[in-house]
């Protein structure tokens, strides 16, 4: 099971790199990003262009 490297931008000039599995959910990814940035996972909103990702979707999808 290969790991995926996700680069998240917090729009304040800070980029966070997180390695996670393709079986992990978006909610798990938010928890990993929150651990590195110091914000709460509830405040993190992951999007690609205008598409907002829900917490129950796996990263492999």
From TrEMBL:
Coiled coil: none annotated. Gene3D superfamilies: Phosphatidylinositol 3-kinase Catalytic Subunit, Chain A, domain 1 (3.10.20.90). Transmembrane segments: none annotated. SUPFAM superfamilies: Ubiquitin-like. Keywords: Ubl conjugation pathway. It comes from the Eukaryota. InterPro entries: Hub1/Ubl5, Ubiquitin-like_domsf. This is Ubiquitin-like modifier HUB1. It comes from Tilletia horrida.
